[in-house]
Amino acid sequence: MFLAYLTSLLVISTLIAWFEIPSLWKQKMWKEFASFLLIFLLGITLNILVGFKIPVPNPFEWIQSTFHPIHEKLLQLLHLQ
Rounded to an integer, what distance in angstroms lies between the CA atom of residue 14 and that of residue 10? Predict the structure, then answer.
């Protein structure tokens, strides 16, 4: 089952890269190429981790832990708490 998942992931990823990368390269869109590659590889990596059933942290928890102190300070500043 996992082998089929991994194979289909790699085949679909290869097809997407096959169509996207040459056009970005020919048009010399270097920033777009770099951002596409970064997001693309991050997505593939996350999918492989999920396929191996490795727990992936929820990004919402990071956002919440970052902005919660700011939220508390704003509530104090505006006298809403």
Answer: 6
CB 26 within 8 A of CB 65: no
Q: What angle do CA 63, 64, 65 make, to 5 degrees?
A: 95
Tell me the DSSP string of 3-59.
HHHHHHHHHHHHHHHHHHHHHHHHTT-HHHHHHHHHHHHHHHHHHHHHHTT-----H
What values do phi and psi take at 19, rounded to 5? -90, -30
Q: What mean pLDDT is reported for the chain?
A: 92
Query: Tell me: the pLDDT tens digits for 67-80?
Result: 999 999 999 999 87
Give CA separation, 58 vs 33, 44, 65, 70, in Å. 27, 17, 12, 20
